[in-house]
UniProtKB/TrEMBL annotation:
PANTHER family: GLYCOSYLTRANSFERASE, POLY-BETA-1,6-N-ACETYL-D-GLUCOSAMINE SYNTHASE
Protein name, per record: Glycosyl transferase
Provenance organism: Paenibacillus oryzisoli
Gene3D superfamilies reported in the protein's UniProt record: Spore Coat Polysaccharide Biosynthesis Protein SpsA, Chain A, Tetratricopeptide repeat domain
Pfam families: Glycos_transf_2
Amino acid sequence: MIVKNEEETLERCLSSVQGCVDEIIIIDTGSKDRTKEIARQFTDRIYDFEWIDDFSAARNFAFQKAKKEYILWLDADDILLPGDADKFLALKQSLPWQTDAVSMVYNLAFDEFGHVTVSLRRNRLVKRERGFRWIGVVHEYLEVFGAIEYADVCVTHDRKHTQTSRNLHLYEKKEKEGKKFSSRDLYYYANELFDHQQWARSLRKYEQFLELKDGWIEDIINACGRAADCLHKLGNLTEAKAKALLAFAYQLPRAENCCRLGYYHMEESDYVSAAYWYQMAASLEKPLHPQALLQHACWTWLPHIQLSVCYNKLGQNERANHHNEIAATFIPQDSRILSNRAFFQGLGIVSSASTT
């Protein structure tokens, strides 16, 4: 782990893995709080690393300190829930000897009921002797290859810090220094601008990224969608729809962009077109091992609750009720589901859960 001023989260993180790992290595990049004191409760393998505005340099330094056969990496905001800790221990006992890396699910966000709303996969466990390296000064990634195992172990991200401008300032600093950005740099620079609601600047970076045409396909698809959102925020709805459609030129439709298109058409009160895109989203099968960010709502309840709205606007309340009940199979206690159900019951439409 690399850490800095993590007194709020570090004990929780290390407690969750203490019985799962054989050594704990902490690289501190300049903490001014109780981070090191907390770390000493779990390990004496604590090292200082002078921060040089380069996350990969710090992570590679951490990997150099590892002595065991495999390396697991985490951030201080991450934990292994008890069930996942048990799965991890089982994985250690059954891991094929030839495995070079293990991909694990990374759960990033949750709804009020504790259901996962956003997730992706990360290569979390890697064979030390392969010498895999971290690349990128910001939003670094671990470059791995060889025999990859896909595990059902989940790492849970439970962020306690508020949104900061640290990464954005690093990109802006590198840009002022004349650094030539890779495609990946441009993509994540655009994401930072997007998260700070700088729509016009974000759009320009997404466009620069897409023009290079050598980015990772999942980043390209997501960039099309986020560029569309920038255009929507800037009031260019027609261009926003065109940008979302561009994603379909690269791969088959994804539910996230179908839902975007449905939403854009709803804003124009074009409920026939909106229903078309939400129906398409509802018909798609969720990827088994998604490598990119997955917005679970778009693959489950969201298209159906939006179809309920669309069909109500079109005067087809039986169909509207039908889709509200499908949405209810995913989020049964959601206030929108209950409100819609009461509305349809007021129209004399009897609700019955659907399995179609």
